[in-house]
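Q: Here's a chain of 129 amino acids. Please give me its 3D structure as tokens.
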Amino acid sequence: MAWKNTKQPSPTAAVPKLNDDRLCWLAIRDHIDKHSRKLGFWGWLSTLAGASGGGRGVGGGAGGAVRMGGDMRRESMSDKKLDYAVAVDAASEQLTHQERPHLRATGQIPDWFVDDVEQRVAALRKQHR
């Protein structure tokens, strides 16, 4: 087990009464936000092209290109978060009977959880291609 404290968590938990998958999402939310906002090379290229007026023919000038670029980035972030949601849901089903009470009592995920989610996200993205 990944935790040093072997005592059972108290039944009166400070964590809200939520499903395990939702508790996992809340515990990993900062990690997901950080990774779903990464633009990558093509994201930066489209941002710079739109801001410089490189897409004048789309949407009525440079402002239209910037709006279109922003829409594309938001859509990409939404797709990335959807992949993470599916991965977190699947990974939360793998929690053991010892890990679930700890999650409910502390709101902390096991050490293996983030790596498992990242592997599942990578597999989902590979399927999308």
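Q: Can you summarize the key feature?
A: Helices lie at 20-36, 40-51, 62-92, 99-106, 113-128.
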